[in-house]
Write a structure and sequence with these properties.
Elements (H helix, E strand, L loop, with lengths): L2 H22 L35 E2 L8 E5 L11 E8 L2 E4 L8 E2 L9 E4 L8 E7 L12 E13 L4 E4 L5 E5 L3 E5 L11 E2 L9 E7 L12 E11 L6 E4 L14 E5 L4 E7 L8 E4 L4 H14 L4
Parallel strand pairs: 12-17
Antiparallel strand pairs: 1-14, 2-3, 2-7, 3-4, 4-11, 5-6, 6-9, 7-8, 8-11, 9-10, 13-14, 13-16, 14-15, 15-18, 16-17, 17-18
């Protein structure tokens, strides 16, 4: 083998080795890192880790007691209703709490015919003595982000009165077919202590595009440690259900952690007035809705009048 051929082979081998070295030094494809600010970036399926940013979907903690008239409503077995026996409600007089009918009346087999597995929720069988609890938060002393101490007081409900036309129909999968007059009044065994804000029932119906505030108590399925806190969130009304269903649809985040506010107030806040426009039914079925109170303002007025006579001096 000639010297020239040997030199050519040596040069070729050096070029090959140099090319391998360069390729091994090439950077790998960039890796996307999901941080706490990337809310909604993770896929929905699979277990979800705790992420602080998800707290925004649960609403703002009511540390100033602006919505302290919002109470918890609990029912016991066998009349378990609402969201695992828990809901929210609104104190509308010292002895009256307004909540959703489905919060105090459990589903039962439908007698209206149709496909097998259909359920009905109505006033035929409701909790006889639901527990209503008021919560008042103390000013936080440990800086922002800390959960303040709270004082709670439980009251026994002695009577549940649903709207006479209350009826919800569920299909075999638990989806709402129709909902009508999903409202109930709880009469307490004694007047609630303390002073609570009052909200007038709106004399004009809610409309698509309106901004509303919903207050209630969290039911925590993903983020740990926030169940039972009173929080509030602003939403926009998306539309009204068809005739025969008196609910309104509202926009909600992709991941909803706040279904425990079912039965709680939906408020329209203006410069000098805050008025009640609905009662949350988010824990009912799988659609973000609330029952509009405008169609039932006369019924609410009559219930308030009835309650005032109960504890008026003779």
């Amino acid at each position: 083998m000639t010297l020239r051929l040997l030199l050519c082979r040596a040069l070729l081998l050096a070029m090959v080795l140099s090319g391998c070295k360069n390729r091994s030094a090439e950077p790998t494809s960039p890796v996307t890192v999901v941080t706490d600010t990337d809310a909604g970036a993770l896929p929905a399926e699979g277990p979800l880790p705790i992420k602080t940013s998800w707290l925004q979907y649960a609403g703002t903690l009511d540390v100033t007691n602006r919505y302290s008239a919002t109470v918890t409503v609990a029912t016991d077995d066998p009349l378990r209703a609402g969201v695992n026996g828990h809901c929210s409600g609104l104190l509308i007089s010292p002895r009256l709490v307004l909540t959703a009918g489905h919060c105090v009346c459990p589903p039962h087999d439908s007698t209206l015919g149709g496909p097998e597995g259909r359920k009905t929720i109505d006033g035929s069988s409701c909790a006889s003595r639901p527990t209503v609890t008021t919560v008042s938060y103390a000013p936080p002393k440990q800086g922002p982000g800390r959960v303040p101490a709270s004082v709670s007081q439980a009251y026994e409900g002695v009577e549940v009165r649903t709207h006479p036309e209350f009826k919800v129909l569920l299909d075999a999968q638990g989806h709402v077919e129709t909902a009508h007059a999903d409202l109930a009044i709880i009469l307490l065994n004694e007047p609630v202590e303390g002073t609570w804000p009052t909200f007038a029932v709106a004399d004009a119906d809610v409309q698509p595009g309106n901004d509303v505030v919903m207050a209630g108590y969290t039911y925590d399925k993903i983020v740990g440690g926030i169940s039972g806190q009173r929080r509030f969130t602003s939403y926009r009304v998306q539309g009204l259900m068809p005739v025969g269903d008196d609910r309104a649809l509202f926009e909600q985040p992709e991941r909803d952690l706040y279904i425990g506010d079912s039965g709680g107030p939906c408020l329209r806040e203006e410069a000098n007035r805050t008025e009640l426009v609905g009662i949350s039914s988010r824990g009912l079925g799988d659609t973000a809705t609330f029952t509009r109170t405008y169609p039932y303002r006369n019924w609410l007025a009559s219930e308030l009048e009835r309650a005032s006579r109960l504890h008026s001096p003779p």
